[in-house]
Amino acid sequence: MPNVGAELASVPLGKMIYDMASAIARSQVALDKASIQLVKVLAATTFDYVPDVTEVLLPNPKTIPGVHDSFGNPLVVTGVQVQTHVGDSFPLTLLQAGVNPTFYAFTNSTIEVKMSITSTQESSNTFSVGVSVTASADFLFASGSVTSHVNFTSANKYSYSVTGSSTMSTTLAPVPPPKNMMPRFFLVNALDPAKVTVSQS
Question: What is the rounded CA–CA span in Å between residue 141 and residue 117?
Answer without folding.
Answer: 71
